[in-house]
Design a protein that fits this description.
This protein has about 525 residues and is mostly helical. About 70% of the residues lie in helices and about 0% in strands. The chain has 24 helices and three strands. The chain has helices spanning about 1-5, 10-25, 30-65, 70-105, 110-135, 145-150, 160-175, 175-195, 200-210, 220-225, 240-250, 255-260, 265-290, 300-305, 315-330, 355, 360-365, 375-385, 405-425, 425-430, 435-450, 465-480, 485-495, 505-519; strands spanning about 455, 460-465, 505. Strands 1-2-3 form a three-stranded antiparallel beta sheet.
């Protein structure tokens, strides 16, 4: 009914204006002329909108004709290039992973990015066992789409473009949409009931913005965190079984077949423990990610936000801010970590969805009508209806890059990341090459004896990073006055090997630092 009224809006405006002008006009002739002119203006505006809509359609068809690849041979050649670049990228990753594995065997510590590369490459090599069947057997690649549909994680990551990853995440968000809505409705009702239906409380405004998909900050989550404390209705132990199962499904922890074999009480307890363990693992990862947050590129920012079920599209600055707020809540000791399963930081308004998603991604969301209850689809549908009156804005929507170009760019990025780790230690390595390892270790033992510190977590003795860097620089400059190494760069390198982020370097960690630098 709303759309029908919108279409008839110019006609209704003309009729209303005519009646008002005729009633207010003193002379009938002047009133008729004014009505005619006003009607002509509305008619011209209506025709302009129609012409703009037709222009957008013609522009879209023209773009599709230019980007469409015709012929079976062209599509087959694109498939061959796709497999070639995927295999090339996998070989590069495997070579880098073997070097990293040798460093681990020697006792060296890996950075977070290196550890993630080693883990992803290992998983890709395992996936290559069944995936190689579709490469070796002639014609088997025709069955690959069916296999990927049945087993989504079958394809190695090097054979998946960024566009495919984004579309997969869109479908995953739509599948979780109904459960996300039920979780939010339960949270909304419990908080409103606990606060006595006070519509002027801060919690009401925060929940209202959450339902609309607007910006939610760290301070907003802290405001309502008291409702998730121990003993309250939203405490993890007091949640109803259906809410626990919905949360577990959203987090990817729920399996349907164990629930049919185990009693409900035992299985619910198992899910609650799994949810706690999930957020504990994320907290451990948050410590390392927070240190490297400023160095993450656009694709890594999207991946980290996807991993935490946050809004993953938007400008990089907003995605980085979301992760910063997430870590502040996750690592806070006075806030239950499971609150992030109910309300998450969001630094991008839902109105930015059309600018952040490509035309193909928008069509995927609007085309999956079976997920009509998903909040993401409802918001996007509402936005598209709002801009129907201004169709020229649709021309500015971005178009995703070609799949092969994306893979080629990723090959270049991997090579740059391999060199990035060595660049971090370049200046420190140049200084330490002038000193023997025994000399540096002896210097560390002296500093440990004078400024030693017992680490509370494991009661091991070590030296605080700032003190160690300061004393080492004094020793280096005493031996060689031409040393140009800064304390800040040395501190950053030492903290890369601070495993538990205690800001204390033990003897084992210092040995790992030296072995890595001396390589």
């Amino acid at each position: 009914s709303y759309s029908f009224c919108t279409l008839l809006e110019p006609m209704n405006v003309g009729r209303i204006a005519a009646s008002r002008l005729l009633s207010r006009s003193s002379s009938g002739a002047k009133g008729v002329v004014s009505v005619y002119r006003h009607h002509q203006q509305n008619r011209w505006a209506s025709e302009t909108r129609v012409n703009l809509a037709e222009a957008v359609k013609e522009k879209t068809v023209e773009i599709k004709k230019k980007t469409k690849r015709g012929g079976v041979m062209t599509q087959a050649w694109d498939a061959v290039l796709h497999i070639y670049h995927g295999m090339r990228l996998l070989i590069i990753n495997t070579q880098v992973a073997m070097k990293l594995q040798r460093r681990v065997l020697k006792g060296s510590q890996l950075t977070r990015r290196e550890r993630q590369l080693l883990e992803s490459t290992t998983k890709d090599l395992i996936r290559m066992v069944p995936f190689s069947f579709f490469i070796i057997v002639p014609g088997a690649e025709l069955l690959l789409p069916v296999a990927v549909m049945m087993f989504p994680d079958l394809t190695p990551s090097t054979f998946t473009s960024r566009e495919q990853t984004r579309k997969k995440q869109i479908v995953d968000n739509l599948k979780k949409g109904a459960r996300t809505r039920r979780i939010f409705e339960h949270t909304f009702s419990r908080i409103i009931i606990d606060e006595g239906y006070d519509l002027y409380s801060p919690s009401w405004g925060i929940l209202k913005r959450t339902g609309k998909g607007d910006i939610i900050s760290e301070a907003d989550i802290r405001t309502i965190s008291n409702h998730f404390q121990v003993g309250r209705k939203l405490d993890l132990k007091n949640l109803p079984s259906w809410v626990v199962r919905d949360v577990a499904r959203v987090l990817g922890l729920y399996g349907s077949w164990p629930g049919t074999l185990l009693p409900t009480s035992i299985y619910d307890a198992r899910l609650r423990n799994a949810i706690e363990s999930c957020f504990e693992k994320l907290s451990d990862d948050d410590v390392n990610m927070l240190e490297a947050l400023d160095t993450l590129n656009d694709e890594e920012l999207e991946r980290e936000n996807m991993k935490r079920n946050m809004r993953w599209f938007g400008p990089p600055s907003a995605l980085r801010l979301q992760l910063k707020h997430w870590c502040a809540i996750s690592l806070s000791e006075d806030i239950p970590s499971h609150i992030l399963a109910f309300i998450r930081p969001c630094a991008t308004s839902h109105k930015a969805m059309l600018k952040s998603l490509s035309n193909d991604e928008v069509n995927v969301v609007l085309g999956l009508k079976k997920y009509d209850d998903a909040p993401m689809r409802q918001r996007l549908k509402k936005l598209t209806e709002e801009i129907k009156e201004h169709p020229s804005d649709a021309i500015d929507n971005s178009i995703m890059e070609d799949e092969l170009v994306d893979i080629k760019d990723r090959v270049t990025d991997i090579k740059e990341e391999v060199q990035a780790a060595d660049e971090v230690f370049k200046h420190v390595r140049e200084v330490l090459q002038n000193f023997s390892e025994e000399e540096i270790l002896h210097c560390y033992e002296i500093i440990l004896g004078e400024s030693g510190f017992v680490r509370p977590c494991d009661e091991q003795r070590g030296v605080k990073v700032i003190i160690l860097a300061r004393e080492l620089l004094k020793y280096f400059k005493k031996k060689d006055t031409n040393v140009k190494l800064t304390a800040f760069r040395l501190i950053m390198c030492l903290r890369e090997f601070d495993i538990d982020s205690s800001d204390v370097i033990t003897r084992d960690e210092f040995d790992s630092f030296l072995s890595r630098i001396k390589e």
